[in-house]
């Protein structure tokens, strides 16, 4: 004899209390996990920025050894003269490319413009105080990487990775300087 179980209540879905409990559990998980995910994403951006800096340092040193000069890499431009590390700008001694691709917004982890200047005075007051001595130690010709759309918190994290603990204000000393959303990094002189 086959017995069939019959649902005498006639319900086929979840009760309101079951739905409320499930939503509460999901909300609790979201408030716990979301900050961890956000922190991981921001740390990944810091790591990416450090990788860009290291690639620029190597490329700039090689360019300088070959040409005796300082290259430019400008986001948004197409001329070889503005991409001296990735394209032959016609400079004597150029033996590149020194980068796999032109510098572009994809290398800025926070989106937006990123430029490699051939002057250390672009976007810094007078150059760089690399040692936290209170006076400029490097200015004039050299390579400076300028990154826009960086929050102060993220700039300080980049500074901690690049400069460590230097005397003085982190925003104005060392290889990393910061002002109004713009991160300035000393690359090479």
Task: Throw out a few tags for this protein.
alpha+beta; 5 strands; elongated
Quick synopsis:
By secondary structure, the protein is of the alpha+beta class. The chain is 34% helix and 14% strand.
What does this structure look like?
By secondary structure, the protein is of the alpha+beta class. The chain has one domain (47-188). Helix content is 34%, strand content 14%. It is built from two helices and five strands; from the N terminus they run H-E-E-E-H-E-E. Strands 1-2-3-5-4 form a five-stranded antiparallel beta sheet. Strand 4 (176-179) and strand 5 form a beta hairpin. Helix 1 packs across helix 2. The termini are far apart. The mean pLDDT is 87.
Query: How many helices does DSSP assign?
Result: 2
Structural class: alpha+beta
Specify the helix fraction band.
Answer: 25-40%
The largest sheet, given as strand count, sense and whether it forms a barrel, is: 5 strands, antiparallel
Work out the count of structural domains: 1
Break the fold down into its secondary structure elements and pairings.
Layout: H1 16-67, E1 73-74, E2 114-119, E3 141-148, H2 152-163, E4 176-179, E5 182-188
